[in-house]
Each structure stands twice: as C-alpha cells, then as structure tokens.
Amino acid sequence: MCLLGTACAGSEETGAGGGAADDAVPAGDGYPVTLENCGETLTFEQAPERVVVMDGASVAEVSTLLALGQEDRVVSNQQSYGMSEIEGRAEAIADLPTGGVETNDAHDIPREAMLGLAPDLVLSTTAYGFDSTNGFATREDLAKVGADTYISPQGCDQDTSSMTIEDSYTLLADLGAVFGVPEAAEEIVTASRDRVSAVEAAVDGREHPAVMVLFSNMSMGANEFSAVAVNGIYDDILASAGGTNVFAGTTDGSFADLSRETVAATDVEALVVISFNDPDAESYAQDLLKEFPQWPAAQNDTYTVLSDSAYLGPDNDEAVDRIARMLHPDAF
C-alpha cells in the first residue's frame, strides 16, 4: 500500500475544495507545456478535459486538483479518506464523479474500464497504477487512445522513502502548468513555504522531542505495530515542526514493522496518529497512551491526530503547524 501526503496552504482562504482558482491563469495561456515524468516526455497543447484519478491509497492528486480549482475536469476519481484537516475538502472529494467504475482485486480501475472512460489524462500516485500485472492499463495502452499519464513525484519506482515537502510543491507546480493555472499553484506553494518558515523560526533552537508516527488501526506486516511511519515526508514534516522520529534508522523504507515489546521499551515523548479511513482515530490515540503509561507522551498527554496533511499533497504546512503547536505550545 502506498500512503502519501497533503497540507493547508492558506486553507482559511481557499474554500471547500481548497481551491485558489480565482486568480488562475485562463486555460490556453502558456501552452504548449512540456514535462519530464518518470522517463517519458509529456506535452500538453491545452488543459486536459477528461481526467481520471486512480486510487493509490492517496488523496494527493485529487486534493491538488481541488486546490487548483480543476474539479470540473474530473470524470472519475477513486481517491477518498472520508476526512481531512481542510474544512470542506472531504465533502468536495465525495462529490466528485466516480465514472461508475467497479474496481478490481487490486482495488483500482481495471484496464477495460479505464479505456472505457476515454480519459485524456490519468493521474497515479506511483507506477503501480500502470502495471499490467495488476490488471491496469499501461502508459502505452493509454497513449494509444490519446491519454497522457502522470506519476506523482517519488512514485516512479514506488519507493517513497525519500519523499519531502518539496515533492508536494513539485506536484502542485506540475499540475498547475498542465492545467494552465501556474499562478494559482505558485500562490499555494508560496503561502505554504511562508507558513512552514514561520513555524521553523518559532521552534528554532529548541529541543526536538522524540515522536512516534503511526497509522491508526492498520496492519502492514507481521508485528502488532507494522504501520509505523519513518523516513520520507513524515520525517521532513517532523523536522520542520521541531521534532524527530523516535524510530528513525529502524528501516530503509517508509514503514517500520515493530513488536509491542520494542514499542513499549521506547521513550515516546509525543504521538502523531494518522487516520486513513478510520473514523475514530482519536480514540485509537487515547487508547495507545493508556496502553503505554510509561511513555512521557502518556504522562503529558502529548498527541495529535492528522489525516491528509501528513503526506504528499497541497497541505503539508497544516501538519507542520499542528505538530509544532503540540510539541512546543509555548512557542506560539
């Protein structure tokens, strides 16, 4: 499973979809647009009009489209977490068309259904979404019917352990260019950079508490704690917020698979629980603190619950701000 990220670049001003389209460049300006994407050169003569968003266990791509005000171009969206830090975002995603697609055993759009949607652009979080062995249409299949394909940053080889907040900005810039709204993308990126910089300045010089980041009620390995997030964008967000990952170095990948004994023996000073389609992640976090009362996090009740701001997407600054206020409340 590929779990990636988002954040609130000026979310108070962007509305239900997080859109910043009011200042967008009219479609048609700035074309043709050429991008290099995972070994392929993409050229757009105009903004795509029939966009398909594959699942990929992400909302990065659909949230970015909403933030850029491009929701009317979506003919099928398979991404949803059912919740968001951004007011109205989850509802806006739920209102998008699905195209009546019945997903396959790999939980995404099968080849024939994809071709039947007649897309002119298909977005996938990683190359997984274009792998024929999963029953999906390949990039070559889609090119033959006139559809471009875009794989999000760090998704070319399906290894997201090197992902950073900068990759979220790249996704915004790329899609802003593709849809003819580069100024809207730049506005969001600038607001996010400014907010992250302000947080970094506020926490500068302070001790970095040891933070455990994990997904609620999720099993991804053999151990009880197999969805512990490390490396990549998770650690990048923590660093900007004035924290450090307590399980850094336990794996080269994006998720550590840890036993209960290892978790119990670790001094967790703060807890970040990420909800992925879990309607009660708050209770999960509270139960975890009760289960490990020896943690400093439990003794000080230091935790926060996030959802889509914690990985690739337009809202990483929201995660940075919330975590920083949890770790360093007197800095704000």
Automatic annotation (TrEMBL):
> Where does the source fall among the domains of life?
Bacteria
Q: Where is the Fe/B12 periplasmic-binding domain?
A: 50-332
The record ties this protein, via PANTHER family, to: IRON(III) DICITRATE-BINDING PROTEIN (PTHR30535:SF7), VITAMIN B12-BINDING PROTEIN (PTHR30535)
Q: Which family does it belong to?
A: Belongs to the bacterial solute-binding protein 8 family.
Designated name of the protein:
ABC transporter substrate-binding protein
Lineage of source species? Bacteria, Bacillati, Actinomycetota, Actinomycetes, Kitasatosporales
